[in-house]
Design goal:
Number of strands: 2
Helix content: 55-70%
Largest sheet: 2 strands, antiparallel
Order of helices and strands: HEEHH
Strand order of the largest sheet: 1-2
Strand content: 5-15%
Number of helices: 3
Distance between the termini: 91 Å
Length: 129
């Protein structure tokens, strides 16, 4: 439904722009830009150029504002991550603080494994008799 509404809105704007251009097709104006003077410029062209320049200016302003908001949010996120990391570091407990770190290959608590224990065993035969 919203897609249809968007398409209909776009078509309405296009039809209105075409109607405006057709209604003012014969009207011409003199356009003074301060440093240059243009004669016999169609009113529709002046209106559409004004609309286009306004859209470009709003886009530039919006991009600048959007970048500022993104920078603020990025700084907030970094600050929040720093605070969370300090909270984790402060509240973390060491579960094995009494033990010293062991090197690879050192014996650990538990049954000791001897090389002969690793050898394959012959199955014992039950005593007959």
């Amino acid at each position: 439904m919203s897609r249809l509404t968007g398409v209909l809105s776009f078509l309405l704007v296009v039809v209105l722009a075409m109607a405006f251009a057709a209604a003012n097709a014969g009207h011409r104006v003199t356009l003074s830009l301060g440093f240059i003077k243009l004669y016999q410029v169609p009113v529709a062209l002046v209106a559409f150029c004004g609309l286009f320049v306004g859209m470009v200016l709003m886009f530039a302003t919006g991009v600048r504002s959007d970048l500022k908001v993104r920078r603020i949010l990025r700084e907030r996120l970094a600050d929040e991550a720093r605070r969370e990391q300090t909270w984790i570091d402060r509240s973390q407990r060491d579960l094995f603080k009494d033990e010293e770190p062991q090197e690879l290959g050192e014996a650990r608590d538990g049954p000791e494994i001897r090389p002969e224990d690793d050898a394959p065993r012959k199955e014992e035969q039950p005593d007959e008799g």
